[in-house]
Design a protein that fits this description.
285 residues, 3 domains, mainly alpha
Amino acid sequence: MPEVQNGSRGEGEIVINAIGPLGIFEDRKGVRTIFIIASLIILLAGGVTWFIFIESHLPPAERGRRLAEANGCFNCHGDGGLRGAPNPGRTDGSVPTFEGDLMMYAANSEEIRGWIRDGVPESRAKSKSWQKQRDSGVLVMPAFGDRLSDGEIDDLVAFVEAVHGEERPSDPLALAGYRRGKELGCFGCHGPGGRFARPNPGSLKGYIPWWGGRDFSDLVHSREEFDQWVEKGISDRFDGNPLARFFLGRALLEMPAYEDHLDPGDLDALWAYVGWLGAESASDR
């Protein structure tokens, strides 16, 4: 119990001093100052925590997609890199897409990087037949090496590969999870392979989280929570949190409940694929 002393600061003015547990004397003005400072510290700490919570953690493929759109790649390769524009003069007749045509132009990640950085990979640069084809077309692949950083080019490579669907797990259970995710329509919202962060107006971060990275680990703390999200469209932890419910309720797109549409073993397979994707993504950092 604090000890209270009365004293006089001037004629007709009573000052109350409080002796707290640390033996610190404070008048009412001092207590008010401490209260204000403490409140600011709490607000600042909460603001930092809130900023960390809502900070965006976009996957490489999504960053690459946004770079592709911002740098005009879709003008020639079509929306999402899925429909090439006509290219008169070329024997192939159109600009290649990232989905079906990629294998005819790039054998691996390094060749994709060469197309983006230099306008042509080293394996084709010296080819007379390729040079003739390039010169005969009205549209020519530009080189972005002087415009984009190495990291940005890496993100574009990740985007092109995700659209093409090249990277798939060799583990049978994880591969079954990939195929089942595609069949259930999961990749419609989460993007090919669950690697994208597509827009979701009204949601906390403005996009649908991908199946890896910080966003996923914030939403899914365990296998049990993963099963809850898939089966019920929400985890028990989020369902019992009023703030989480508020933001989930504001989102235009909501996670559907798949409980009535799952086959035996689906959850095991999906979980195996998510584990593979997280490990594969971490190895690329």
